[in-house]
Amino acid sequence: MDEKHKSFRKQTTGVKAERRKKKKKEGDNDQQNTSAASTLEEAKRRNPKAFSIQNPIKAQQEFKRTQDIKEKRIHLPEVDRSPLEPPPVVVALIGPAKVGKSLLMKCLIKHFTRQKLTDIRGPVTIVSGRKRRITFIECRNDINSMIDVAKIADLVLLLIDAKFGFEMETFEFLNIAQVYGLPRIMGVLTHMDLYKTMNKQLNKRKTQLKHRFWTEIYQGAKLFLMSGMKNGEYIQRDVQNLARFISVMKFKPSTWKTAHPFVVADRMEDLTEPELIRTNPLCSRTVCLYGYVRGCPIKSDTPIHIPGCGDYKLSNISALPDPCGLPGDRSTKTKQARRVLNEKERLLYAPFSGVGGIVYDKDAVYIELGGSHSHRPSNNNEKTRPINEYVANILSTKQTIEEKVASSQLKLFADSEPIVVEEEQEMERRKMKFAKEEDVDNDDSSDDDDVQEANSDEGDEVDDDQEEDDAEEMDEQEEEEEHSDEEPEQEEFGNSWKENISKKFAISYVPSKNINWTQLVYGDHLNKTNENSDLEENDSDNENVEVGGLFHVSQRKRINANDQEDYTLKTKNEKHNWDLDEIYDLIRDCFVTGKWEKDKDAANLLAEDDAIGDDDDDDDELFGDFEDLETGEKNTAEENEQMDTDNDEDDNKEKTKLETKKANLKSAFDAEYDQSKDPDSGYLDELKKEVEIQTKLNRSEFENMPDDLRVLYEGYRPGMYVRCELTQIPCEFVNNFDARYVIVLGGMPVTESHTGYVQVRLKKHRWHKKILKSKDPLIISLGWRRFQTIPYYFMQDHNMRHRLLKYTPQHMYCHALFYGPITPQNTGFVAVQQTAGKTDFRVTATGVVLDLDKSTKIVKKLKLIGTPFKIFKKTAFIKGMFNTSLEVAKFQGASIRTVSGIRGQIKKFVKEHPGGFRATFEDKILLSDIVFLRAWLPLQVPKFYTPVTNLLMSMEQKDQWQGLRSLGQLKRDKNIRNEPNADSLYKPIERRERAFRPLKIPTQLQRDLPFHLKPKAAESTTMKDPIEEKQRVAVVLEPEEKKMADIMKMFTTVYKDRLKAKQKTQVNRNSQHQKQQKIQELKHLQKHKQLKRMVYKKIGQMESRKNKTTGRHGKHNNNDSIDE
Amino acid sequence: MTLQFDGCAFLRQRLALSTLSYTPIKIKNIRSQENEPGLRDFEINLLHLLEKITNGSKVEINSTGTSLYYVPGTLTGGVVEHECSLQRGIGYFLELVLYMAPFMKTSLELRLKGVTNDRDDPSVDLIKYSAISIMKRFLGSDDGLELKITKRGVKPNGGGEILFRCPTKMKLRPCQWTDTGKIKRIRGVAYALRVSPSLANRLIDTAKGLLLKFLPDVYIYIDHQKGQNAGLSPGYGLTLAAETKNGSVISAESCSIPRAAEGDTTAITIPEELAKEAVFKLLDEIYKAGVIDSFGQTLTMNYMALNQADVSKVITGPLNAYSMQYLRYLKQFFQIMFKIENSAEIPKHVSDKMDDDMSDSDEERNDDDDDDDELKTGSPKILLTAVGIGYHNLTKTLI
Fold first, then answer.
1. What is the structure's pLDDT at A618?
2. DSSP per residue over A438-459, as a string?
3. Do the domain assignments include residue A1019?
4. Which of A745, A767, A796 represents a domain boundary (last residue)?
5. Cβ-Cβ contacts under 8 Å, A317 against chain B
6. Interface predicted TM-score of the whole assembly (ipTM), two decimals
7. A694 vs chain B: nearest CA distance in angstroms?
8. How far does A503 lie from chain B, in Å, by closest CA?
9. Tens of pLDDT along A754-765?
């Protein structure tokens, strides 16, 4: 690696080099320009107008962009609901088979606890540090487990076989996890030792894997290397590195997890009575599941879904001591000691694997012996149970015998109401209140309306609680005095109405402060009596009605407490007499005119300010609005007097008071000043402050309450170890129980425990090869649940119409609607077509919930087709669209259209054709036109919803289970083929040659045309009209005409013959004439030749003579020329 | 999951909670022991109203009307018009809607026709004063929240009409409302329908005469309607509301006894007496009330429970039977328990931890010994504390 390479030489020629040069030049210029820039700045400062916005649109865009970026950075502050003592972090190990999950888990556990686990089954909880516990879960390599684990994991260790590379499961898991809010993910590369150490191939492989991993998660995601093995374990250093990262990681739980409680079961017990199981092995079981509460607080009776099992109600939940608690605070020790765990504190809890030491139950403590028993935990429990149960029963009795007697009932007759001992108790309880009632009466007697009052009370309905009490405002002393007298009286009036009245007064006016409202509202037995007590009322008017003078109709007007009329405010006429001064005095201070609290009284505050002195003048402004001048004056006077008397003592007090006040003012001013710096953040700051206050309040409200009370109000907080009892669990859950499959008790609000139509936005996964078809079943994992359902895909048109799609789009979002569990909007889901089989990428689609409803709005386009059978101008009669006139009547006024686009309207049915109707169109339609009516047919989405129950299946079935088959698959399996519609089949297309008519130009037009455009006569004669030719009619002539025609024919023949002969002679003559002409011409030529010869001869002679005289040579030449 | 009940009592509470929690309910033995067994007309009418504002709800009533099976649907809202039964006031119907109004699919615009004011049910005026101020707290704003009385009508013939608008919310806001505040003004409405308008003046005169002793800022509006808007029967009444410095409203009302049916002898109401009754009722309410009056108790509890998973605190007066029953039902339907404390008993260290607005009169009473006498603010108050169940509006559509 370290060998020296020849360094790269930069090119000096070419485009790149030039570009580089240019750049360099610019850079130099820039440096020079810096001084220029500073002057520019100065100029800007000097003359800002010259540098104002030049380009407003650009400036606007820039401003918008900066604001957008600014706004994007802001997150809506949320109330932090995370628990103070968090539950163990869930670390899931995920990867394909044979990648080393179990080994890594063992190594990590060994690293954290120094214990070696041999056979790990189910979750293992350990204490990893002073403030952190970890639950390790090994995820099985099937898609159901992966989905479940993705929902609960805080941190995922994704194991990758470096030799093999990425496998389908890894990517499947990543895509599943993304839907539920991506947990923290760390990659672990194993099987590195299969490469020869430190060779090039290995490095290449590493970077390759790393970059692929990064693209999937984020750039720079952690990827660990398990570089080798030693003694069948990973190298300690590697494990240590990984463990360190695990123990310092921070988590942000997803919104789903913060709103839904869940328990990852790490222990299971079957509580069903053995006798029941013996008699009926298939009976439903009562099962106890243990685990830490996670997510948010869980309450008793919350609906629970166990993925892979079904929906249940949490029938009983109780907190148990933490089996794997965090070490106590050791703040006294040294820093080092505080940080490091000692051996005792390194706890390990894994009941499924048979480790965990002491096991607590609700009413018993089991001590795990380990060793020989460790691999049979269930056996162990069964053995101990019967013995324990007896003791446990005694131990568990929280009620005293007295209480038990109180709660027991005695039934005298089968249909009579059980006699409850409680009633007596209640009377006892009421004694005290009855006293007040007596008081009332006594007090009333002083008033004149005493008798009336009593009467009205007697006639009262049960709805007494709202009634008001006149004389509640009695002095406490008086009450006390009469307390002793009332007891015998009370026994006298043992009537039920009296009891109610006593209660009534107690409730309506709360005379004493020690009334226990919680008991009154939530106390069970009181509740019961309230609801079930009947009041009998004898109505004197109805009592003695005689029928026929013989019989009395015994009418007993029974007003059942359950049948009270539903009045919000029962208005009664008993009132305080507010005219009286002492009564008026009771609410004197409710008004602004009354006395104020000390810290709010304006006068008081003013006085304080005065005392502080005149140095802060602003205070007057602050507390300027005071109302009580008179009382204020009094107060100050008093205070002044006091100050005179003990001035020295108060001096220090005043000083401190003053100082705190000043500090408060200063902080208030500072806060205001800081805020005013950034004017935009005001709103956000306020929100943040609000949220902070709420968070604090949430934390502090129940802080000091004992746990058993606190859970009533808050529920079982996350981090508590609980025992959840579930009833009516199918026996398969117990029989086919396998701890290696993670069991999650997913809690949810009551509102989410019912089913309805769920509308989702869905996108087919890009790696899934086929598009999805409407009505094909899918396995969807939404919320906690995994279920099979039948989705319909649709698109939302612009007019919000939900139009059905046959198939999902290839690369686009569409909507889907299915019948399923109601889950809050914005929850993600993942869909798979089948869980078994591992050939293709199984994640079929992902999406998010948009809407929940109890009905559907999906429509499908439907075209009703008809044909016209009679057409008048714009009216046409159309048949074939409907079958009866009733159907037509339903569609009267509907718009219809022809294929060519002529629009019309249905008018009225006609009688001659059943289903025929009259329609009008905007234009005349043709008889050959097809008329159609476009309609939208609402569709019913089938109510099919079945949870996938993989936990209930036996081991073999778990891997092979296939859900509902799609229609196509069914047809393929059963070899069914639909007969195609003959009209839909493709046939060879036959096209006939088409003959066109000639173009006919009107004569008028022809005349006007320029010559070159005019049709030529010759053309017309030569081009015979083929159609006319065919259609020519034989002409039959009259005899007279025939004769004439014959004669004419004869004449023409003779004439033609003569013409012919004439032509012949003419031709002969012409030829002869031409011959003669030729001969003459020849003669003429010969004559001319002779003449020429003679002339030349003469000329030659003359020349020769001339030459003789001039010279020999010339003579000779001349002779030659003449010869030629 | 079906919950079973007996008898017709608290029907509205059961229906409201059933609808909000999507839990089916079965009510048996409805007035089975009475001479006229079964559901009354107004109850059937109420169920009709419920069917109008929900989608997919199912109501099954047996032939005698003594048993009712109700499977709730989703709350849809939208524009709804309903003719209420004249046996009960509109308040009876409107109260049920108030519980559910913020959780509709689309914002509710409800038009109810019937009896706006009567003696038994909270009148629309009272609801307007009391409920709207409470809803404002929990919804966060009063944007789109409106209760308009377009026509008035009294028993027996009704003829009134109201318009109730409410926005939808995904979730409510938690509310710490522990300072009662002092009453700064008293407002009210005196209405006279199909009777002489002087009756309203007489009402006002008497009421003001009584109330001015407490507070100078008293103003009572006259609402004298004419023609169609005055409904179909004569009647008059007075609704009073006391507003505190902290924005809470305490209200009470009184209404004339409806015109006697033929042959019946009922008392005739004298306006002065009626005004006095109304004033006394208001003073009673002030005596009892915390930050809310007795009508608002149930509504406040409802909103506190159906809130985010945060702590809400409200000071009330002594609970009435109606709201106590509601607490029980809330536990039954939603597994939520309220912490109910006498606010006087709250230990000091707890109240110290709370914010300044928590420090109310009672606390003051404890630590200030030198104060000559405690403030006279009526009956001992109760502090209701609850952690919301994390309720979400499950029907609102995301786009």
1. 46
2. HHHHHHHHHSTTHHHHHHHHHT
3. no
4. A745
5. none
6. 0.90
7. 7
8. 11
9. 999 999 999 999
